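User: Working on a comparison across species. This one is Ferredoxin--NAD(+) reductase from Cellulophaga lytica. Can you predict its structure so I can line it up against the others?
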Amino acid sequence: MCTSKDICVIIGASHAGVNTAFNLRKEKWLGKIILIDADPELPYHRPPLSKTYLTANTSTTNLLKPIESYKKDNITLLLGKKVTRLDAVNRCLFLDNETKIDYTKLVLATGAKPIIPTIEGLKETASYFCLRTAADIVAIKESYNASKTKKVVIIGGGYIGLETAASLKKIGAEVVVLERESRILKRVATAVISDFFRDLHTQNGVQILENKEVSKVENTLENGVKVTKVHCTDASYFTAEVLIVGVGVIPNTELAKQAGLKLKNGISVANTGETSNLNIYAVGDCAYHYNLHYKTYVRLESVQNAVDQSKIIAANICGNPLIYNTIPWFWSDQYNVKLQIVGLAENYTDYIVREEQDKENVISVWYFNNDELLAVNAINHTKAYVFGTKFIKESKKIAKEKLADTSIPLSKDIAVVN
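Assistant: Here's the predicted structure for Ferredoxin--NAD(+) reductase from Cellulophaga lytica:
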């Protein structure tokens, strides 16, 4: 049971950290709550960064909570402050100005940071950007607005790279996406999904180039304009005034390592959110946890995971035991297309594609491990997403012949009655 003298410190003020702070109050945490982040901005929504923020004329971010809410729940915000040291033995941490902060419980919501690939000349190029924070967006927009040719090269054909390409195309950019793999989205989706989004981008004027491994980046002058020349291993090259790198992220585990916590693809946590130190919890993108439904360990980079996990952690910190047991879901918006994903498609043995009759671009891909439905990718198809979610949660077996027959409307009747 907590007391008014207890202190819970949360490092990281994105979705996971902010929701943990407010959930602690809901769970009747009586003590002090301190929320720390190196980002000086009042915590904001991150999914729109690669979407509406890029195309908006304003730099105003969509706040997670108004400042009044933090005051009302007595949550102390320390923004623009970096935690440099963590002493788990004496339960304290130090900020970059050497301020010492003690804690009773600590929550690591440290998130992840962009991977910077080892490419000759990349770090010396002033006009390259990642896309993780509001400051990144401001820098990209300033660089793009100042550019004369409006040429943009994006390294990486994952969801972030493709969402960014769609947004920049909307405001008139000439966009080239360079993907190292044989197809975009190869790590996360079937060829059906890759083909759909390749066609979508091509139709909208974005150049998608696969099997393109970037080997070198250099600054040069072209027709009197300072540009970046992006060289590939096949001797092709592309010029741009704005270069964006979106090849994935890695979890921020430096403080966890200092604390001697167990690490594996992130910070290892129990289904309560507790790390290998009983006074330290981890939540969100940095947490590596066991998914009870899929019986496997995962680290999820999603708002849904951050929000749901924060509720479990807050409850457990306050002495109300709960375990984390959810089906992951994600989404991506590109042009006028919404992709909704539920479940984990890893280790699928087969899949079924439904292209709904008389409905353009209404598609769903159903992934199975033999008879078990693992995941559904739904393009402009909320009904498939909803039924897929229900069937996965209830471990329903699917009549595959019915599912594959698009003359049969998608309904609960495709589930086999036990």
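For your comparison, note: The domain at 7-113+250-318 is CATH 3.50.50.60 (FAD/NAD(P)-binding domain).

User: Helpful, thanks.
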